[in-house]
Design a protein that fits this description.
Layout (H helix, E strand, L loop, with lengths): L2 E6 L6 H13 L2 E7 L10 H11 L6 E6 L3 H8 L3 E6 L2 H17 L4 E6 L9 H9 L10 H36 L1
Parallel strand pairs: 1-2, 1-4, 2-3, 4-5
Bound molecules: 4'-phosphopantetheine (PNS).
């Protein structure tokens, strides 16, 4: 049984991620997509939302499951009894970081090998960061994310923008009140 783990942030899942998942699932008997619950970053979507989105977009692939994890990717691989860790390589710019990560992981755990998939050319420029950037300016992200994800990204960005402008309005009116009290 060849079990593999594909770890990442997936905030949100992109067409590039999905392409890697489909190809890795063809190679492995079982593929577990691991969603990192990273407390240091402020993600657009909670880890539960990211797991659910990934479950939605991989529902058609029978040997794929999705789980959240904390801590080291290799520890998650060990917990899942997986001997392969999957990553995608989009461009040379990814290579240095990915190489360092693969070497670190290898030195931490000899029982886990990193397997790189070269990203399909049509998706080579897509990242979760680019998706959020384009969506935040109202650009079309339909080519970048699976169809089930598109509207969730717009809705979350809109909600965030509204929340931010409410905070700004509140602090502006507080400042006006404070200024009035001082006069
Ligand atoms: O999708 P991302 O954000 O490029 O994924 C990066 C991820 C989650 C694979 C990487 O940050 C990771 O493995 N984090 C867990 C901590 C860890 O194992 N670090 C050691 C490798 S340097």
């Amino acid at each position: 049984m060849k079990r593999a783990v594909y770890p990442g942030s997936f905030d949100p899942v992109t067409q590039g991620h999905l392409d890697i998942i489909e190809r890795a699932a063809n190679l492995a008997d079982e593929l577990i997509v691991g969603v990192l619950n990273n407390n240091e970053k402020t993600p657009l979507f909670s880890v539960e939302e990211r797991v659910n989105m990934l479950k939605d977009v991989t529902a058609h692939i029978s040997n794929v499951s999705v789980e959240a994890f904390n801590g080291l990717s290799v520890e998650f691989c060990k917990k899942c009894d997986a001997s392969f860790l999957v990553r995608g390589l989009r461009a040379v710019t990814d290579f240095e970081y990915e190489l360092q990560m693969a070497q670190t992981n290898r030195s931490l755990e000899k029982g886990v090998d990193t397997l790189f998939f070269v990203t399909e050319l049509n998706y080579a420029y897509i990242s979760s960061t680019i998706v959020k950037e384009v969506a935040s300016y109202g650009g079309d992200i339909s080519g970048f994310v699976p169809p089930q994800i598109k509207d969730r990204v717009y809705a979350r960005i809109e909600a965030r923008t509204e929340a931010k402008s409410e905070v700004r309005t509140e602090s502006k009116s507080e400042a006006v009140c404070a200024a009035k009290e001082m006069t």
